[in-house]
Design brief:
This protein has 62 residues and is an alpha+beta fold. It has one domain. It contains two helices and three strands; from the N terminus they run E-H-E-H-E. Strands 2-1-3 form a three-stranded mixed sheet, with no helix packed on it. Helix 1 (19-22) links the parallel strand 1 (6-9) and strand 2 (28-30).
């Protein structure tokens, strides 16, 4: 994975788009609160991030 964006996982369920998403850039995961790799793995493996609508996964870009 790339190192363009760090993501912070929280307890809420919402996805915030950023310029990196619009450019379909690779993301860097920072598990600072939870360990939900099994739930989020499929999200980061998708080629087109823009066309994906997260299901019960909250990803906050900071």
């Amino acid at each position: 994975m790339g190192t363009h964006t760090e993501l912070l996982f929280t307890k809420r369920y919402q996805f915030l788009q950023t310029e990196w998403d619009l450019h379909k850039s690779f993301l860097k995961i920072n598990f600072s609160r939870t360990k939900t790799w099994e739930l989020t793995q499929s999200f980061f493996l998708l080629k087109d991030i823009n066309s994906y609508e997260p299901n019960g996964i909250f990803i906050k870009v900071f």
